[in-house]
Amino acid sequence: MLKIVNGVGTAACVLTLSLAWIPLRALAQIPIVDLTPPTVAITSPANGATVSGTITVTAQASDNVGVVGVQFKYNGVNLGTEDNIAPYSRNADTTTVPDGPYTLTAIARDAAGNRTTSAPVNVTVSNASADTTPPTVAVTSPASGATVSGTITVTASASDDVGVAGVEFQLDGVNGGAEDTAAPYAASWDTTAAANGTHTLTAVARDAAGNRTTSEPVTVTVSNNSPSPPAVQRYEESDPSVSYSLGWGQSNAGWFAWSGGAAVETTVPGAQATFSFTGTSVTWVGYRSGRSGIARVFVDGAFVSEVDLFARTDEVRAPIITVNGLTDGNHTLTIEVTGLKNPEAVSGVIQVDAFDLPAPAVSHLQETGPEAAFSGAWAAENSGIAWSAGNAKVTESAGAQATLTFRGTSAAWRGYRGPDAGMARVYLDGAFAAEIDLYSPTHQVQDAVYTASGLADGTHTLTVEATGLRHPSSSAARVIVDAFDVTAPGVRSQETDPAVSYSGTWTHGNRNRTWSEGTASVSGTAGSRASFTFSGTEVRWVGFRAARTGIANVYLDGTFVAEVDTYAPGAEGYQSTAYTISGLAPGTHTLVIEATGRRNPASTNNYVVVDAFDVAP
User: Fold this and answer.
1) What is the pLDDT of residues 166-180, one digit of tens each?
2) Which of 100, 150, 270, 443 has the fewest CB atoms within 10 Å distance of its CB?
3) Where a domain ends, among 488, 511, 530?
4) pLDDT on residue 21
């Protein structure tokens, strides 16, 4: 009821209206205005700090609806562009402004246009006396091109205008032990802990001011006797060892290149697929996508895990789950459809493509990763096709090459076959291996078009070269590089394995990228740790290298081993080996990955990713 009174003195007019006649939909259309501004505070640097060189300014911001962006300022001047993604930060090169006091602020904005300016943070810029001259360093032994075996001594010479604080030795870009802080600089290297093949040695010199220089690489060949890894056998979904309940049917293949050419699928809750096998480990090979659902996995009738197959990109022939540590005998792996799905998924379909015995440790490396190098005229493949991780590279230029440098016993090139595909040559370790005609009357994406297997455990190169030629029936000579699958000896443990424990602040179950078995754990909080307990003589941390990743500390059995900078300019290295420790004594060990909260000056963020761990016996 609405009463309106109008009048002056004793003469007044009272008008009474009932709201009952106003339609409810009219009331519902009255807009609700967001008047609540965000909150924001600068978290680094601290108020009163003295800064120099390149620093990172960070802020925390929140809003009742959502923060759209944060703009950083110094003395009221914009510091770069507005940051639209949390955590909010900007790098600032203090050498571009005069020494003296400055005031830093951050302005948070929400979608309604409400803005809040943080409390000011006062800092003092002081660059006048900074030592900016880096040291010089060179590896002096062994000589480049040498063949080595057993245990050798690696030496380096280093000098600096003020003084060398220490020298670290690296094997294939990974720190090989503690820093040597006194000349002559040397380290002992047990080459039997490395794979046979070509390796690169470098030395990193550091002065007291933190300036670092990496030497020119020295390439050597390791030649030690090593046992051959067990062969992996694939069982397709149509194999007699696989049985199905009612409800399964042939997958709608579309353009996807299933293993063996086919796969089965269902959305029926309770439907089961059972694989009978003999061995100590097994991998279910399937499909992850935005329409994939949730399944339960059982071994010998006992529940093992509930698996969410949702992914933000379509991933074909993907290792869905691996089960290790079984007794050597007969077993059954059962996949049961739940009918459930991730909130982001549009469907709950479950696919069975194949099974692998024994379970291999496979890294699915993208063409954008630091392990891949391209020469010649390559372009981004933008046809809208469901490439792995959403990206691929294409060329029709004769002589254009894509080269993957990897350590492992096999590698597969994931590419494309179709009516517009051409011909390519493949080289392994520089030697011609095959010429491949990629023409097919039907489209096949994410196809394993070439596989090199049975390799010695060591460092290898796989090169794809476009010829510019094509099949007479093909409409074009396109050669596409989408990804590479690299198999390394040993057993892979996922970041969700009970052998991995976490402390500090981590985001678990990240599905933003093509992580191993679908998920990874991420932290940018200093002091946060992931601890992996294992038995073996070699361990590899499988992580993520990119232009926005940070620095981690690595510890083994409680002792600091190395600082690892996962920054990789212009690269997206999913399932990359971030660090390897070899030559361990047989027995139980603990590997710790610690986020430092720091980053390379060129990196845009400080994320540290734990995706999986590979252990060799």
Assistant:
1) 999 999 988 888 899
2) 100
3) 488
4) 46
CA angle 447–448–453, rounded 5-degree value? 175
Domain that includes residue 455, residue range: 364-488
**How confident is the model over 412-452, as pLDDT tens digits?**
999 999 999 999 999 999 999 999 999 999 999 999 999 99
Residue 17 covered by a domain: no
Does pTM top 0.90 for this prediction?
Answer: no
Q: Which residues pair with 331 in a beta bridge?
A: 277
Q: Which two tokens stand for residue 25?
A: 């939909």
15: in domain: no
pLDDT attached to residue 468:
96
Task: Give residue-wise pLDDT tens across range 470-504.
Answer: 999 999 999 999 999 999 888 999 999 999 999 99
| Average predicted confidence (pLDDT) for the chain | 90
Closest listed residue to residue 142, CA positions, set 219, 203, 195, 216 = 219
Contact 491, 615 (CB under 8 A): yes
C-alpha torsion angle, residues 554, 556, 560, 565 (rounded to 10): -20
Q: Are residues 374 and 351 in the same domain?
A: no
Per-residue three-class SS string for 231-285: CCEEEECCCCCEEECCCCEECCCCCECCHHHCCEEECCCCCEEEEEEEECCEEEE
Evaluate if residue 229 carries a pLDDT over 90. Answer: no
Per-residue pLDDT band for 221 (boundaries 50, 70, 90) equals confident
Please report whether residue 415 resides in a domain. Answer: yes
Residues 6 or more apart from 458 whose CB is under 8 A from it? 194, 195, 196, 197, 198, 222, 407
Q: Same domain, yes or no, for 186 and 249?
A: no
Instruction: Please calculate the CA angle 356-361-363 and round it to the nearest 5 degrees.
Output: 110
Q: Indicate if 215 and 255 belong to the same structural domain.
A: no
380 with 473, same domain: the answer is yes
Omega prior to 184 cis, within 30 of 0: yes
Q: How many domains are contained in the chain?
A: 5
As a whole number of angstroms, the distance between CA 436 and CA 414 comes to: 13
- On whether the CB atoms of residues 576 and 369 are closer than 8 A, the answer is yes
The domain spanning residue 453 has which CATH number? 2.60.120.260
User: Is residue 20 a part of any domain in this protein?
Assistant: no
609 and 527 within one domain: yes
**Paired strand residues for 44:** 58
Look-up of token digits 């070509």:
198
**Quick check: 242 pLDDT over 90?**
yes
Spatial CA neighbour of 177 closest among 203, 200, 144, 145: 203
Backbone angles phi, psi at 21, to 5 degrees: -80, -15
Instruction: State percent of the chain over pLDDT 90.
Output: 76
